[in-house]
Write a structure and sequence with these properties.
heterodimer, A: 287 residues, mainly alpha, MetI-like fold, 2 domains, B: 283 residues, 12 helices
Chain lengths: 287, 283
Protein backbone atom coordinates (compact mmCIF):
# COMPACT_ATOMS: atom_id res chain seq x y z
CA UNK A 1 0.00 0.00 0.00
CA UNK A 2 3.09 2.16 -0.06
CA UNK A 3 2.35 3.20 -3.61
CA UNK A 4 -1.07 4.80 -3.04
CA UNK A 5 0.51 8.22 -2.47
CA UNK A 6 2.61 8.22 -5.65
CA UNK A 7 -0.30 6.90 -7.73
CA UNK A 8 -2.57 9.65 -6.45
CA UNK A 9 0.15 12.23 -7.15
CA UNK A 10 0.55 10.96 -10.70
CA UNK A 11 -3.22 10.95 -11.25
CA UNK A 12 -3.46 14.50 -9.88
CA UNK A 13 -0.68 15.57 -12.23
CA UNK A 14 -2.52 14.00 -15.17
CA UNK A 15 -5.75 15.83 -14.28
CA UNK A 16 -3.86 19.11 -13.88
CA UNK A 17 -2.16 18.66 -17.25
CA UNK A 18 -5.51 17.80 -18.77
CA UNK A 19 -7.05 21.04 -17.44
CA UNK A 20 -4.10 23.03 -18.77
CA UNK A 21 -4.43 21.27 -22.10
CA UNK A 22 -8.13 21.98 -22.38
CA UNK A 23 -7.60 25.69 -21.64
CA UNK A 24 -4.84 25.83 -24.22
CA UNK A 25 -6.67 23.90 -26.95
CA UNK A 26 -10.10 25.48 -26.44
CA UNK A 27 -8.93 29.08 -26.11
CA UNK A 28 -8.62 29.50 -29.87
CA UNK A 29 -12.38 29.17 -30.27
CA UNK A 30 -13.04 31.66 -27.47
CA UNK A 31 -10.62 34.16 -28.98
CA UNK A 32 -12.23 33.76 -32.40
CA UNK A 33 -15.70 34.30 -30.96
CA UNK A 34 -14.76 37.43 -29.07
CA UNK A 35 -12.71 38.84 -31.94
CA UNK A 36 -15.78 38.50 -34.12
CA UNK A 37 -17.80 40.49 -31.59
CA UNK A 38 -15.03 43.09 -31.26
CA UNK A 39 -14.58 42.32 -27.60
CA UNK A 40 -11.44 41.81 -25.63
CA UNK A 41 -11.19 39.22 -22.95
CA UNK A 42 -9.02 38.84 -19.92
CA UNK A 43 -7.21 35.64 -19.18
CA UNK A 44 -9.61 34.61 -16.42
CA UNK A 45 -12.53 35.00 -18.81
CA UNK A 46 -10.82 32.77 -21.32
CA UNK A 47 -10.25 30.12 -18.68
CA UNK A 48 -13.85 30.35 -17.58
CA UNK A 49 -15.13 29.99 -21.11
CA UNK A 50 -12.90 27.08 -22.02
CA UNK A 51 -14.28 25.09 -19.11
CA UNK A 52 -17.80 24.71 -20.46
CA UNK A 53 -17.95 24.96 -24.22
CA UNK A 54 -20.55 22.89 -26.01
CA UNK A 55 -18.13 21.30 -28.48
CA UNK A 56 -14.69 21.72 -26.99
CA UNK A 57 -11.61 20.48 -28.78
CA UNK A 58 -10.58 18.87 -25.54
CA UNK A 59 -13.35 18.65 -22.95
CA UNK A 60 -12.30 19.53 -19.41
CA UNK A 61 -12.22 16.59 -16.98
CA UNK A 62 -15.32 17.73 -15.13
CA UNK A 63 -17.27 17.85 -18.42
CA UNK A 64 -16.29 14.27 -19.17
CA UNK A 65 -17.15 13.26 -15.62
CA UNK A 66 -20.52 14.96 -15.99
CA UNK A 67 -21.12 13.25 -19.35
CA UNK A 68 -20.20 9.93 -17.82
CA UNK A 69 -22.45 10.54 -14.80
CA UNK A 70 -25.33 11.62 -17.02
CA UNK A 71 -24.85 8.59 -19.23
CA UNK A 72 -24.66 6.10 -16.40
CA UNK A 73 -27.05 7.43 -13.76
CA UNK A 74 -29.02 10.17 -15.51
CA UNK A 75 -30.98 7.87 -17.80
CA UNK A 76 -33.10 4.79 -17.51
CA UNK A 77 -30.83 1.83 -18.14
CA UNK A 78 -32.87 0.78 -21.18
CA UNK A 79 -32.73 4.23 -22.80
CA UNK A 80 -30.70 4.59 -25.97
CA UNK A 81 -28.89 7.52 -24.39
CA UNK A 82 -27.72 5.44 -21.48
CA UNK A 83 -24.08 4.46 -21.47
CA UNK A 84 -24.98 1.40 -19.41
CA UNK A 85 -27.15 0.21 -22.30
CA UNK A 86 -24.38 0.74 -24.84
CA UNK A 87 -21.77 -0.79 -22.56
CA UNK A 88 -24.01 -3.82 -22.12
CA UNK A 89 -24.40 -4.23 -25.88
CA UNK A 90 -20.63 -4.21 -26.25
CA UNK A 91 -20.00 -6.31 -23.17
CA UNK A 92 -22.42 -9.07 -24.19
CA UNK A 93 -20.67 -9.45 -27.56
CA UNK A 94 -17.32 -9.34 -25.78
CA UNK A 95 -18.28 -12.02 -23.28
CA UNK A 96 -19.82 -14.33 -25.87
CA UNK A 97 -16.78 -14.00 -28.13
CA UNK A 98 -14.42 -14.33 -25.18
CA UNK A 99 -16.12 -17.57 -24.09
CA UNK A 100 -16.07 -19.03 -27.61
CA UNK A 101 -12.47 -17.98 -28.25
CA UNK A 102 -11.20 -19.22 -24.89
CA UNK A 103 -13.03 -22.55 -25.18
CA UNK A 104 -11.73 -23.26 -28.68
CA UNK A 105 -8.28 -22.02 -27.72
CA UNK A 106 -8.01 -24.40 -24.77
CA UNK A 107 -9.28 -27.31 -26.91
CA UNK A 108 -6.73 -26.60 -29.61
CA UNK A 109 -3.98 -26.31 -27.01
CA UNK A 110 -4.95 -29.74 -25.63
CA UNK A 111 -4.72 -31.14 -29.14
CA UNK A 112 -1.37 -29.50 -29.77
CA UNK A 113 0.12 -30.85 -26.57
CA UNK A 114 -1.05 -34.41 -27.25
CA UNK A 115 -0.48 -34.68 -30.97
CA UNK A 116 2.96 -34.13 -32.39
CA UNK A 117 1.81 -33.67 -35.97
CA UNK A 118 -0.69 -31.04 -34.88
CA UNK A 119 1.97 -29.29 -32.82
CA UNK A 120 4.37 -29.09 -35.73
CA UNK A 121 1.79 -27.96 -38.27
CA UNK A 122 -0.44 -25.58 -36.28
CA UNK A 123 1.86 -24.00 -33.70
CA UNK A 124 4.03 -21.95 -36.12
CA UNK A 125 0.86 -20.51 -37.64
CA UNK A 126 -0.62 -19.71 -34.24
CA UNK A 127 2.53 -17.79 -33.33
CA UNK A 128 2.76 -16.09 -36.72
CA UNK A 129 -0.88 -15.07 -36.52
CA UNK A 130 -0.05 -12.85 -33.55
CA UNK A 131 2.07 -10.64 -35.77
CA UNK A 132 -0.84 -10.04 -38.16
CA UNK A 133 -3.25 -7.11 -37.76
CA UNK A 134 -6.25 -9.44 -37.53
CA UNK A 135 -8.50 -6.51 -36.66
CA UNK A 136 -8.39 -5.44 -40.32
CA UNK A 137 -10.82 -8.20 -41.25
CA UNK A 138 -13.45 -6.93 -38.80
CA UNK A 139 -15.47 -4.88 -41.35
CA UNK A 140 -15.47 -7.79 -43.76
CA UNK A 141 -16.77 -10.29 -41.22
CA UNK A 142 -19.61 -7.92 -40.31
CA UNK A 143 -20.64 -7.30 -43.92
CA UNK A 144 -20.28 -10.91 -45.06
CA UNK A 145 -22.28 -12.25 -42.14
CA UNK A 146 -24.92 -9.59 -42.70
CA UNK A 147 -25.19 -10.64 -46.35
CA UNK A 148 -26.04 -14.21 -45.34
CA UNK A 149 -28.56 -12.92 -42.84
CA UNK A 150 -26.65 -13.01 -39.57
CA UNK A 151 -26.65 -9.68 -37.74
CA UNK A 152 -26.60 -8.44 -34.18
CA UNK A 153 -24.53 -10.08 -31.50
CA UNK A 154 -22.91 -12.95 -33.36
CA UNK A 155 -20.71 -11.17 -35.94
CA UNK A 156 -19.13 -9.02 -33.23
CA UNK A 157 -18.68 -12.07 -31.05
CA UNK A 158 -16.91 -13.82 -33.93
CA UNK A 159 -14.39 -10.99 -34.14
CA UNK A 160 -13.90 -11.05 -30.36
CA UNK A 161 -13.51 -14.81 -30.41
CA UNK A 162 -10.97 -14.61 -33.20
CA UNK A 163 -8.91 -12.02 -31.35
CA UNK A 164 -8.98 -13.85 -28.01
CA UNK A 165 -8.32 -17.26 -29.58
CA UNK A 166 -4.62 -17.07 -30.36
CA UNK A 167 -3.32 -15.60 -27.09
CA UNK A 168 -5.14 -18.43 -25.27
CA UNK A 169 -3.70 -21.10 -27.57
CA UNK A 170 -0.14 -19.85 -27.18
CA UNK A 171 -0.46 -19.33 -23.43
CA UNK A 172 -2.12 -22.67 -22.75
CA UNK A 173 0.37 -24.68 -24.80
CA UNK A 174 3.07 -23.10 -22.65
CA UNK A 175 1.03 -23.88 -19.53
CA UNK A 176 0.33 -27.53 -20.40
CA UNK A 177 4.05 -27.97 -21.08
CA UNK A 178 5.14 -26.24 -17.86
CA UNK A 179 5.44 -29.44 -15.70
CA UNK A 180 9.09 -30.44 -15.82
CA UNK A 181 10.49 -33.80 -16.87
CA UNK A 182 10.84 -35.01 -13.26
CA UNK A 183 7.14 -34.57 -12.57
CA UNK A 184 6.18 -36.23 -15.84
CA UNK A 185 8.56 -39.10 -15.06
CA UNK A 186 7.01 -39.50 -11.63
CA UNK A 187 3.56 -39.91 -13.18
CA UNK A 188 5.18 -42.31 -15.65
CA UNK A 189 6.42 -44.49 -12.74
CA UNK A 190 2.86 -44.51 -11.39
CA UNK A 191 1.92 -45.81 -14.88
CA UNK A 192 -0.58 -42.98 -15.19
CA UNK A 193 -2.53 -42.82 -18.45
CA UNK A 194 -2.34 -39.77 -20.68
CA UNK A 195 -5.74 -38.62 -19.44
CA UNK A 196 -4.65 -38.98 -15.83
CA UNK A 197 -1.42 -37.12 -16.51
CA UNK A 198 -3.45 -34.38 -18.11
CA UNK A 199 -6.04 -33.95 -15.35
CA UNK A 200 -3.74 -34.45 -12.38
CA UNK A 201 -0.60 -32.69 -13.55
CA UNK A 202 -0.77 -30.70 -16.78
CA UNK A 203 -4.14 -29.06 -16.16
CA UNK A 204 -3.44 -27.83 -12.59
CA UNK A 205 0.05 -26.73 -13.59
CA UNK A 206 -1.32 -24.62 -16.43
CA UNK A 207 -3.54 -22.44 -14.20
CA UNK A 208 -1.20 -19.45 -13.79
CA UNK A 209 -0.70 -19.37 -17.58
CA UNK A 210 -4.44 -19.77 -18.08
CA UNK A 211 -5.29 -16.64 -16.12
CA UNK A 212 -2.50 -14.58 -17.66
CA UNK A 213 -3.73 -15.39 -21.15
CA UNK A 214 -7.35 -14.81 -20.07
CA UNK A 215 -6.47 -11.24 -19.13
CA UNK A 216 -4.87 -10.60 -22.53
CA UNK A 217 -7.78 -12.32 -24.27
CA UNK A 218 -10.40 -10.26 -22.41
CA UNK A 219 -8.73 -6.97 -23.37
CA UNK A 220 -8.42 -8.14 -26.98
CA UNK A 221 -12.05 -9.31 -27.06
CA UNK A 222 -13.26 -5.90 -25.90
CA UNK A 223 -11.25 -4.14 -28.60
CA UNK A 224 -12.66 -6.59 -31.13
CA UNK A 225 -16.25 -5.91 -30.09
CA UNK A 226 -15.73 -2.12 -30.20
CA UNK A 227 -14.13 -2.20 -33.64
CA UNK A 228 -16.78 -4.66 -34.81
CA UNK A 229 -19.41 -2.01 -34.11
CA UNK A 230 -17.83 0.56 -36.40
CA UNK A 231 -18.91 -0.69 -39.86
CA UNK A 232 -22.49 -1.55 -38.90
CA UNK A 233 -23.45 2.10 -39.19
CA UNK A 234 -23.36 3.02 -35.51
CA UNK A 235 -26.53 1.44 -34.14
CA UNK A 236 -25.69 0.53 -30.58
CA UNK A 237 -22.65 -0.13 -28.47
CA UNK A 238 -19.62 1.81 -27.29
CA UNK A 239 -17.99 1.65 -30.72
CA UNK A 240 -21.15 3.14 -32.21
CA UNK A 241 -21.01 5.96 -29.65
CA UNK A 242 -17.42 6.68 -30.65
CA UNK A 243 -18.33 6.74 -34.33
CA UNK A 244 -21.43 8.89 -34.05
CA UNK A 245 -19.57 11.22 -31.69
CA UNK A 246 -16.87 11.66 -34.30
CA UNK A 247 -19.46 12.24 -37.05
CA UNK A 248 -21.28 14.99 -35.16
CA UNK A 249 -18.27 16.50 -33.40
CA UNK A 250 -19.69 15.62 -29.98
CA UNK A 251 -16.38 15.41 -28.17
CA UNK A 252 -17.89 14.96 -24.72
CA UNK A 253 -19.77 11.94 -26.04
CA UNK A 254 -16.56 10.39 -27.44
CA UNK A 255 -14.69 10.92 -24.19
CA UNK A 256 -17.46 9.48 -22.03
CA UNK A 257 -17.73 6.43 -24.30
CA UNK A 258 -13.96 6.07 -24.10
CA UNK A 259 -13.97 6.19 -20.31
CA UNK A 260 -16.87 3.77 -20.20
CA UNK A 261 -14.83 1.37 -22.36
CA UNK A 262 -11.89 1.82 -19.99
CA UNK A 263 -14.13 1.06 -17.01
CA UNK A 264 -15.50 -2.07 -18.70
CA UNK A 265 -11.94 -3.22 -19.49
CA UNK A 266 -10.86 -2.56 -15.92
CA UNK A 267 -13.83 -4.53 -14.56
CA UNK A 268 -13.14 -7.47 -16.88
CA UNK A 269 -9.46 -7.64 -16.01
CA UNK A 270 -10.24 -7.02 -12.33
CA UNK A 271 -12.76 -9.88 -12.16
CA UNK A 272 -10.32 -12.26 -13.83
CA UNK A 273 -7.59 -11.10 -11.46
CA UNK A 274 -9.83 -11.75 -8.45
CA UNK A 275 -10.77 -15.24 -9.66
CA UNK A 276 -7.09 -15.88 -10.31
CA UNK A 277 -6.10 -14.81 -6.81
CA UNK A 278 -8.74 -17.02 -5.17
CA UNK A 279 -8.03 -20.04 -7.38
CA UNK A 280 -4.28 -19.92 -7.07
CA UNK A 281 -4.54 -19.40 -3.32
CA UNK A 282 -6.77 -22.45 -2.89
CA UNK A 283 -4.40 -24.45 -5.06
CA UNK A 284 -1.49 -23.31 -2.93
CA UNK A 285 0.20 -21.72 -5.95
CA UNK A 286 0.15 -18.12 -4.88
CA UNK A 287 3.30 -16.45 -6.11
CA UNK B 1 -19.19 -32.40 -55.79
CA UNK B 2 -15.97 -33.59 -57.36
CA UNK B 3 -14.17 -30.55 -55.91
CA UNK B 4 -15.23 -31.38 -52.38
CA UNK B 5 -14.20 -35.03 -52.69
CA UNK B 6 -10.84 -33.91 -54.06
CA UNK B 7 -10.46 -31.44 -51.20
CA UNK B 8 -10.99 -34.08 -48.57
CA UNK B 9 -8.74 -36.53 -50.37
CA UNK B 10 -5.98 -33.90 -50.42
CA UNK B 11 -6.56 -33.17 -46.76
CA UNK B 12 -6.33 -36.83 -45.83
CA UNK B 13 -3.19 -37.32 -47.89
CA UNK B 14 -1.46 -34.25 -46.46
CA UNK B 15 -2.45 -35.24 -42.94
CA UNK B 16 -1.06 -38.76 -43.28
CA UNK B 17 2.15 -37.32 -44.73
CA UNK B 18 2.42 -34.81 -41.89
CA UNK B 19 1.87 -37.45 -39.21
CA UNK B 20 4.52 -39.64 -40.85
CA UNK B 21 6.97 -36.74 -41.00
CA UNK B 22 6.28 -35.55 -37.46
CA UNK B 23 6.58 -38.99 -35.87
CA UNK B 24 9.23 -40.37 -38.19
CA UNK B 25 12.98 -40.52 -37.66
CA UNK B 26 13.61 -37.24 -39.49
CA UNK B 27 11.25 -35.22 -37.24
CA UNK B 28 13.96 -33.12 -35.62
CA UNK B 29 15.60 -31.83 -38.79
CA UNK B 30 15.27 -28.26 -39.91
CA UNK B 31 13.72 -29.16 -43.25
CA UNK B 32 10.88 -31.12 -41.66
CA UNK B 33 10.22 -28.34 -39.20
CA UNK B 34 9.68 -26.08 -42.21
CA UNK B 35 7.84 -28.58 -44.42
CA UNK B 36 5.20 -29.64 -41.90
CA UNK B 37 3.71 -26.18 -41.23
CA UNK B 38 4.07 -25.28 -44.92
CA UNK B 39 2.12 -28.37 -45.89
CA UNK B 40 -0.56 -27.44 -43.36
CA UNK B 41 -0.83 -23.94 -44.83
CA UNK B 42 -1.03 -25.29 -48.38
CA UNK B 43 -3.72 -27.74 -47.29
CA UNK B 44 -5.82 -24.90 -45.92
CA UNK B 45 -5.45 -22.96 -49.18
CA UNK B 46 -6.38 -26.01 -51.29
CA UNK B 47 -9.37 -26.82 -49.07
CA UNK B 48 -10.50 -23.19 -49.28
CA UNK B 49 -10.24 -23.13 -53.07
CA UNK B 50 -11.93 -26.48 -53.58
CA UNK B 51 -14.74 -26.01 -51.08
CA UNK B 52 -15.59 -22.52 -52.38
CA UNK B 53 -15.66 -23.87 -55.94
CA UNK B 54 -17.50 -27.04 -55.02
CA UNK B 55 -20.25 -25.33 -53.07
CA UNK B 56 -20.46 -22.38 -55.48
CA UNK B 57 -20.04 -19.88 -52.65
CA UNK B 58 -20.88 -16.44 -54.07
CA UNK B 59 -17.99 -14.07 -54.63
CA UNK B 60 -19.34 -11.49 -52.18
CA UNK B 61 -19.05 -13.96 -49.32
CA UNK B 62 -15.72 -15.63 -49.94
CA UNK B 63 -13.47 -15.38 -53.00
CA UNK B 64 -11.05 -18.20 -53.75
CA UNK B 65 -7.31 -17.81 -53.13
CA UNK B 66 -6.64 -17.76 -56.88
CA UNK B 67 -9.08 -14.87 -57.38
CA UNK B 68 -7.35 -13.00 -54.56
CA UNK B 69 -3.95 -13.67 -56.13
CA UNK B 70 -5.20 -12.39 -59.50
CA UNK B 71 -6.57 -9.27 -57.78
CA UNK B 72 -3.24 -8.66 -56.05
CA UNK B 73 -1.28 -8.92 -59.29
CA UNK B 74 -3.74 -6.66 -61.12
CA UNK B 75 -3.85 -3.87 -58.55
CA UNK B 76 -0.24 -3.73 -57.42
CA UNK B 77 0.04 0.08 -57.87
CA UNK B 78 -3.03 0.72 -55.69
CA UNK B 79 -1.81 -1.67 -53.05
CA UNK B 80 1.60 -0.02 -53.06
CA UNK B 81 0.15 3.48 -52.63
CA UNK B 82 -2.05 2.25 -49.77
CA UNK B 83 0.90 0.49 -48.19
CA UNK B 84 3.04 3.62 -48.28
CA UNK B 85 0.24 5.78 -46.87
CA UNK B 86 -0.71 3.47 -44.00
CA UNK B 87 2.44 1.58 -43.18
CA UNK B 88 5.37 3.84 -44.04
CA UNK B 89 3.79 7.20 -43.23
CA UNK B 90 1.31 6.27 -40.51
CA UNK B 91 2.53 3.18 -38.71
CA UNK B 92 6.33 3.48 -39.05
CA UNK B 93 6.63 7.14 -38.08
CA UNK B 94 4.25 6.67 -35.17
CA UNK B 95 6.11 3.56 -34.10
CA UNK B 96 9.46 5.36 -34.11
CA UNK B 97 8.15 8.37 -32.19
CA UNK B 98 6.15 6.32 -29.69
CA UNK B 99 8.92 3.84 -28.91
CA UNK B 100 11.60 6.53 -28.64
CA UNK B 101 9.39 8.59 -26.31
CA UNK B 102 8.61 5.53 -24.17
CA UNK B 103 12.29 4.61 -23.73
CA UNK B 104 13.22 8.21 -22.89
CA UNK B 105 10.39 8.50 -20.36
CA UNK B 106 11.44 5.16 -18.88
CA UNK B 107 14.99 6.44 -18.37
CA UNK B 108 13.64 9.65 -16.81
CA UNK B 109 11.27 8.01 -14.36
CA UNK B 110 13.89 5.40 -13.54
CA UNK B 111 15.79 8.08 -11.61
CA UNK B 112 12.87 8.69 -9.29
CA UNK B 113 11.47 5.78 -7.26
CA UNK B 114 8.48 7.97 -6.42
CA UNK B 115 7.51 8.39 -10.06
CA UNK B 116 8.17 4.71 -10.66
CA UNK B 117 5.78 3.64 -7.94
CA UNK B 118 3.19 6.12 -9.18
CA UNK B 119 3.50 5.72 -12.94
CA UNK B 120 3.94 1.98 -13.24
CA UNK B 121 0.47 0.95 -12.00
CA UNK B 122 -1.05 3.68 -14.17
CA UNK B 123 1.01 2.51 -17.16
CA UNK B 124 0.11 -1.13 -16.58
CA UNK B 125 -3.53 -0.18 -16.38
CA UNK B 126 -3.33 1.93 -19.54
CA UNK B 127 -1.66 -0.94 -21.42
CA UNK B 128 -4.83 -3.03 -20.89
CA UNK B 129 -7.26 -0.33 -22.04
CA UNK B 130 -8.89 -0.26 -25.46
CA UNK B 131 -6.66 2.60 -26.59
CA UNK B 132 -7.87 2.18 -30.17
CA UNK B 133 -10.87 4.17 -28.93
CA UNK B 134 -8.79 7.37 -28.89
CA UNK B 135 -8.68 7.17 -32.69
CA UNK B 136 -11.74 9.40 -33.32
CA UNK B 137 -10.37 12.08 -30.97
CA UNK B 138 -6.94 12.10 -32.55
CA UNK B 139 -8.41 12.11 -36.05
CA UNK B 140 -10.39 15.19 -35.00
CA UNK B 141 -7.27 16.92 -33.68
CA UNK B 142 -4.74 16.09 -36.36
CA UNK B 143 -6.95 15.94 -39.44
CA UNK B 144 -7.55 13.13 -41.91
CA UNK B 145 -3.95 12.84 -43.14
CA UNK B 146 -1.30 10.39 -42.01
CA UNK B 147 -0.38 12.58 -39.04
CA UNK B 148 -3.47 11.54 -37.10
CA UNK B 149 -2.72 7.86 -37.81
CA UNK B 150 0.81 8.34 -36.54
CA UNK B 151 -0.62 9.99 -33.41
CA UNK B 152 -2.90 7.00 -32.74
CA UNK B 153 0.07 4.67 -33.19
CA UNK B 154 2.18 6.76 -30.79
CA UNK B 155 -0.48 6.48 -28.09
CA UNK B 156 -0.96 2.76 -28.70
CA UNK B 157 2.69 1.69 -28.62
CA UNK B 158 3.75 4.01 -25.78
CA UNK B 159 2.53 2.10 -22.73
CA UNK B 160 3.59 -1.45 -23.62
CA UNK B 161 7.10 -0.22 -24.46
CA UNK B 162 7.24 2.00 -21.34
CA UNK B 163 6.24 -0.83 -19.00
CA UNK B 164 8.78 -3.19 -20.53
CA UNK B 165 11.56 -0.60 -20.60
CA UNK B 166 11.12 0.31 -16.92
CA UNK B 167 11.15 -3.36 -16.03
CA UNK B 168 14.27 -3.81 -18.11
CA UNK B 169 16.13 -0.93 -16.50
CA UNK B 170 15.64 -2.67 -13.16
CA UNK B 171 17.01 -5.94 -14.56
CA UNK B 172 20.73 -5.42 -13.92
CA UNK B 173 21.88 -7.07 -10.74
CA UNK B 174 23.04 -5.40 -7.55
CA UNK B 175 26.50 -6.97 -7.91
CA UNK B 176 26.90 -5.67 -11.44
CA UNK B 177 25.93 -2.16 -10.40
CA UNK B 178 28.30 -2.35 -7.43
CA UNK B 179 31.06 -3.36 -9.80
CA UNK B 180 30.35 -0.27 -11.90
CA UNK B 181 30.46 1.79 -8.72
CA UNK B 182 33.89 0.39 -7.80
CA UNK B 183 35.06 1.50 -11.24
CA UNK B 184 33.73 4.93 -10.16
CA UNK B 185 31.50 4.99 -13.23
CA UNK B 186 29.18 7.97 -13.52
CA UNK B 187 25.40 7.58 -13.75
CA UNK B 188 25.50 7.93 -17.52
CA UNK B 189 28.36 5.48 -17.92
CA UNK B 190 26.49 2.91 -15.82
CA UNK B 191 23.36 3.54 -17.84
CA UNK B 192 25.08 3.27 -21.18
CA UNK B 193 27.44 0.37 -20.50
CA UNK B 194 25.45 -1.76 -18.10
CA UNK B 195 21.81 -0.96 -17.61
CA UNK B 196 20.66 -0.21 -21.15
CA UNK B 197 22.29 -3.35 -22.57
CA UNK B 198 20.78 -5.36 -19.70
CA UNK B 199 17.39 -3.81 -20.46
CA UNK B 200 17.52 -4.68 -24.17
CA UNK B 201 15.75 -8.09 -23.98
CA UNK B 202 12.86 -6.43 -22.15
CA UNK B 203 12.76 -3.41 -24.45
CA UNK B 204 12.71 -5.64 -27.50
CA UNK B 205 9.89 -7.63 -25.99
CA UNK B 206 7.89 -4.40 -25.86
CA UNK B 207 9.03 -3.38 -29.35
CA UNK B 208 7.80 -6.69 -30.77
CA UNK B 209 4.39 -6.33 -29.13
CA UNK B 210 4.25 -2.78 -30.48
CA UNK B 211 4.79 -3.84 -34.13
CA UNK B 212 1.36 -5.47 -34.31
CA UNK B 213 -0.27 -2.65 -32.36
CA UNK B 214 1.22 -0.07 -34.72
CA UNK B 215 -0.34 -1.64 -37.79
CA UNK B 216 -3.70 -2.18 -36.07
CA UNK B 217 -3.73 1.45 -34.87
CA UNK B 218 -2.94 2.84 -38.31
CA UNK B 219 -5.61 0.72 -40.02
CA UNK B 220 -8.38 1.26 -37.48
CA UNK B 221 -7.73 5.01 -37.32
CA UNK B 222 -8.52 5.17 -41.03
CA UNK B 223 -12.02 3.84 -40.34
CA UNK B 224 -12.69 7.19 -38.62
CA UNK B 225 -11.71 9.33 -41.57
CA UNK B 226 -8.87 9.37 -44.05
CA UNK B 227 -7.83 10.70 -47.45
CA UNK B 228 -8.78 8.41 -50.33
CA UNK B 229 -5.69 6.25 -49.96
CA UNK B 230 -4.71 3.87 -47.22
CA UNK B 231 -5.26 0.25 -46.31
CA UNK B 232 -8.00 0.92 -43.75
CA UNK B 233 -9.78 3.27 -46.13
CA UNK B 234 -9.57 0.75 -48.98
CA UNK B 235 -10.87 -2.07 -46.78
CA UNK B 236 -13.90 -0.15 -45.57
CA UNK B 237 -14.62 1.33 -49.03
CA UNK B 238 -14.32 -1.95 -50.91
CA UNK B 239 -16.37 -3.77 -48.27
CA UNK B 240 -19.08 -1.21 -48.97
CA UNK B 241 -18.88 -2.06 -52.69
CA UNK B 242 -18.82 -5.80 -51.87
CA UNK B 243 -15.58 -6.09 -53.83
CA UNK B 244 -14.25 -8.90 -51.66
CA UNK B 245 -11.15 -9.92 -53.67
CA UNK B 246 -9.74 -6.41 -53.17
CA UNK B 247 -10.48 -6.55 -49.43
CA UNK B 248 -8.68 -9.86 -49.16
CA UNK B 249 -5.80 -8.46 -51.21
CA UNK B 250 -5.41 -5.61 -48.70
CA UNK B 251 -5.63 -8.06 -45.82
CA UNK B 252 -2.92 -10.19 -47.43
CA UNK B 253 -0.69 -7.14 -47.74
CA UNK B 254 -1.41 -6.18 -44.12
CA UNK B 255 -0.58 -9.70 -42.95
CA UNK B 256 2.66 -9.79 -44.94
CA UNK B 257 3.64 -6.32 -43.75
CA UNK B 258 2.89 -7.24 -40.12
CA UNK B 259 4.91 -10.44 -40.24
CA UNK B 260 7.81 -8.78 -42.06
CA UNK B 261 7.85 -5.89 -39.57
CA UNK B 262 7.89 -8.33 -36.65
CA UNK B 263 10.55 -10.41 -38.36
CA UNK B 264 12.82 -7.40 -38.91
CA UNK B 265 12.53 -6.34 -35.27
CA UNK B 266 13.26 -9.93 -34.22
CA UNK B 267 16.38 -9.99 -36.42
CA UNK B 268 17.59 -6.70 -34.91
CA UNK B 269 16.92 -8.14 -31.46
CA UNK B 270 19.05 -11.14 -32.27
CA UNK B 271 21.91 -8.89 -33.32
CA UNK B 272 21.64 -6.62 -30.26
CA UNK B 273 21.01 -9.22 -27.55
CA UNK B 274 23.25 -11.98 -28.92
CA UNK B 275 24.55 -12.55 -25.39
CA UNK B 276 21.16 -13.42 -23.90
CA UNK B 277 20.56 -17.12 -23.05
CA UNK B 278 17.32 -17.23 -25.06
CA UNK B 279 19.26 -16.26 -28.19
CA UNK B 280 22.31 -18.43 -27.51
CA UNK B 281 20.53 -21.74 -27.04
CA UNK B 282 18.75 -21.42 -30.35
CA UNK B 283 21.85 -21.21 -32.49
Amino acid sequence: MKSVGPILAVLAAIVALWYAGSVWMNSQWTLDQTARNNQTVTFSQIVQDTMDQKRPVLPAPHQVAEGLWQGVFGQAVTSKRSLVYHAWVTLSATLLGFAIGTGLGVLLAVGIVHNRAMDMSVMPWAIASQTIPILAIAPMIIVVMASIGITGLLPKAVISAYLSFFPVVVGMVKGFRSPDAMQLDLLGTYSASRAQTFWKLRFPASMPYFFTSLKIAAAAALVGAIVGELPTGAVAGLGARLLSGSYYGQTVMIWSALFMAAIVAAILVGVIGAVQAVTLKRMGMRQ
Amino acid sequence: MIWIVLAFLFWGGAWVLNVRLANGPVAGTRAVRLIVPALFGITILVMWEAVVRGLNVPLVILPTPTEIAVQISESLPTLWVDFVQTFVKGALSGYAIGCAAAVIVAILIDRSPFLQRGLMPVGNFAAALPIVGTAPILVMWFGFGWQSKAAVVVVMVFFPVLVNAVEGLAASERMQRDLMATYSASYWQTLWKLRLPAAMPFIFNGLKIATTLALIGAIVAEFFGSPIVGMGFRISAEVGRLNMPMVWAEITVAALAGSAFYGIVAVIEKAVTFWHPSQRTRG
